[in-house]
Amino acid sequence: MTGFTYKNGVLHADDIALSTIADKVGTPTYVYASSTIEQNYARLANALSPLGVRIAYALKANSNQAVIATLARLGAGGDIVSGGELTRAMAAGIAPDRIVFSGVGKTADEVAQALRAGIHQFNVESIPELDLIDRVAASVGIRANVALRVNPDVDAGTHAKITTGRKDNKFGIDLDDAAAAWTRAVSLPNLNPVGLAVHIGSQLIDLTPYRAAYRRLADLVRALRAQGHEVSRLDLGGGLGVGYRGETGPDVADYAALVREMVSDLGCSLMVEPGRYLVAEAGCVLSRVLFVKDGSARRFVILDAGMNDLLRPALYDSFHAVVPVKQAAPDAVIHPADIVGPVCETGDTFAKARELPPLEQGDLVAFLHAGAYGAVMGSTYNTRPLAAEVLVAGNKFELVRPRQTVEDLLSRERIPSWLSGGDQ
Ligand code: LLP
Predict the structure, then answer these.
(1) 276 assigned binding-site residue
(2) Is there a contact between 356 and 337 (Cβ–Cβ < 8 Å)?
(3) Rounded Cα gap, residues 335 and 269, in angstroms
(4) How far is the CA of 70 from the centre of ligand 1 (A)?
């Protein structure tokens, strides 16, 4: 289910027609339906809270302040991967003691920022990182809670660019090295080793890889405890997928049952780090048809949204449904067309030979399931300002990121003195 439905023949986000948003804000624009974020959060929380599992929203999926604030209000913590995301999380109202810091490449400055803020824990991905956090913790005078993110060497069966839990991925500490890493963490005076973390990849539709990963994690907890270590927290990662092609995604009740079966007897406090599951369905990219070009081989529908606005199809060959904002007549002739953007790259292609009702110049379309890894992965390639973002709640909507302007872009750049004549 996405947050977008036809009412009176026009696609709506909650009670707002997308054509109204296009008139007021222009295109391309990201539109988010808060009701869908709320429903997704409630579904996951209802399944997991009986097990005491807390939800730390992975901000990387969509870090607009309005989206984070929506989730913060519902009680979500945050999973961050940079000092910037820490600032965003706190600005939107996530309490620092509900924040975990993941990522393979934390800098000393970011570690200091997080320690001073009083975050819940660092998920540490290497022994050199343990050493760094210990040093920074000493200089800041705050002991750091650390969990070891282990790499369980499980194939998540997802796209190669978003799988993270295999030995040849850069993420986590190899299972075989985890006991030595724990011993190292114990030996460092400014660290408090609290637990383990795992994240095997993103867009998991099948739950089987979780089972394998959690089994290995549970075995490791038992092995560490047998060596006399205290392991009190488990972070079970994110990765729950969504049905981009209308297929049914993983059932969160099944996921909860799996968590119960695999790890709940360990008596650890539990947390998960979902991103996509909470926000993907809640967002769309609203775009306008610039031209329809009938080439000799195929028809091209050229949009005002490009790969700089929605990168996923170009980067991962991802599928996003494209639907007309004005509902097609039931007897509309379906015609295959390539849906492309204006960027000067052949890769700026959203869909090939997509079966669509006829689209004409000026028509509005929406890319569905674009709430996760959409706006956050936008760029200004071809000097295309970042798209606007709008949050809808019932019959209200607000611009939550105004469209960037070319002046914004140029104001960040300088012509050096020796070129501008200021050097003489
Ligand atoms: N925790 C960690 C440590 C992660 O690396 C990620 C995602 C998550 C949680 C959240 O995963 P989710 O629940 O959203 O699957 N740009 C790609 C996805 C990259 C995911 C990176 N890590 C895409 O557009 O498909």
Answers:
(1) yes
(2) yes
(3) 53
(4) 19
Indicate which atom in ligand 1 lies nearest the CA of residue 239: 15
345 marked among binding-site residues: yes
DSSP 206: S
DSSP, collapsed to helix, strand or coil, labels residue 99 as strand
Choose the weakest-confidence range: 121-135, 162-176, 254-268.
162-176
Q: Where are the domains of the chain?
A: 4-31+280-411, 34-278
The answer as to CATH 2.40.37.10 being correct for domain 4-31+280-411 is: yes
Question: Domain spanning 34-278: which CATH class is it, in words?
Answer: alpha beta
- Among the listed residues 344, 407, 411, 415, the single catalytic one is 344
The string of pLDDT tens digits covering residues 64-85 is 999 999 999 999 999 999 999 9
ipTM rounded to 2 decimals: 0.99
> Distance from first CA to last CA of the chain, Å, rounded?
64
Q: Is 273 annotated as a binding residue?
A: yes
Please say if the pLDDT value at position 312 is more than 80.
Answer: yes
Residue 424 DSSP code: -
Beta bridge partners of 150: 173
Give the pLDDT confidence of 319-373 residue by residue, as tens digits. Answer: 999 999 999 999 999 989 999 999 999 999 999 999 999 999 999 999 999 999 9
| Closest-lying ligand 1 atom to the alpha carbon of residue 149 | 3
If one residue of 41, 59, 60, 316 were mutated to test the ligand 1 pocket, choosing by the most ligand atoms within 8 A of its CB, it would be 60
Q: Is the pTM of this model over 0.95?
A: yes
Question: How many angstroms does the Cα of residue 6 sit away from the middle of ligand 1?
Answer: 30
**In the annotation, is 268 catalytic?**
no
